[in-house]
């Protein structure tokens, strides 16, 4: 799945999930930024991704290598519910047009 993220009026994307992780490492993506998979429905990044706090880095590991951004179950469930609503609305509109 590809993502878009918005900072102010500027939209960046489409961006792969791996690249979103890199943006989080580089602090280009923050929990308060808005993200979308379709550029129509926007959610706070922390509603879609789990921003895992960094672990204590080992002596040979940099702090940048410890940030992990994973899709959250709540975010996936919201997109599934949105998809179901859209399918139902399209089916209803088609039924109304054909009857």
Keywords:
two-stranded antiparallel sheet, single chain, 4-stranded antiparallel beta sheet, about 100 residues, alpha+beta, elongated, about 40% helix
Overview of the structural elements:
By secondary structure, this protein is an alpha+beta fold. It has one domain (2-98). It is built from 3 helices and 6 strands. The chain has helices at 17-25, 45-48, 73-98, and strands at residues 2-7, 10-16, 34-36, 43-44, 49-52, 68-71. A 4-stranded antiparallel beta sheet has the order 2-1-3-4. A two-stranded antiparallel ribbon has the order 5-6. A hairpin with a 6-residue loop joins strand 3 and strand 4. The termini are far apart. The mean pLDDT is 78.
Helix-strand layout with pairing:
Blueprint (H helix, E strand, L loop, with lengths): L1 E6 L2 E7 H9 L8 E3 L6 E2 H4 E4 L15 E4 L1 H26 L1
Antiparallel strand pairs: 1-2, 1-3, 3-4, 5-6
């Amino acid at each position: 799945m590809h993502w878009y993220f918005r900072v102010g009026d500027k939209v960046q994307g489409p961006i792969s999930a791996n690249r979103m992780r890199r943006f989080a490492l580089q602090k280009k993506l923050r929990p308060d930024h808005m993200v979308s998979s379709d550029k129509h429905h926007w959610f706070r990044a922390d509603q879609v991704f789990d921003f895992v706090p960094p672990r204590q880095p080992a002596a040979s590991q940099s702090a940048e290598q410890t940030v992990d951004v994973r899709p959250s179950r709540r975010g996936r469930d919201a997109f599934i519910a949105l998809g179901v609503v859209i399918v139902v609305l399209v089916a209803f509109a088609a039924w109304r047009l054909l009857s």
